[in-house]
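Lab channel / #folding
Pinned by the channel admin:
"Please post every new chain as: sequence first, then the structure tokens as a reply. Keep commentary short and put observations after the output so the thread stays searchable."

First post following the new format, from NK:
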Amino acid sequence: MSIQFMIPHYIVLNQNNVITALTIMVLFLLVLLVFGIYKTVKLKAEHKKLTKKSEKKEEVYQDFTEGHLY
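Reply from TO:
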């Protein structure tokens, strides 16, 4: 005795359709992964550049409130 599911007649689930759908999903996720890695590398480089820039510029804090009356 087999269990039959109510599948509409216009949806045919064969092996080629499943493989094609999985391939498309894997490619999409791979593109997202590569994009995320690219953005991470880019942000790390910018962070490194900004860190070097802030290390060079060590400013002494100046109190800007001493001339103001509140």
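NK: The mean pLDDT is 82.
TO: also worth noting, The first helix runs from residue 15 to 56.
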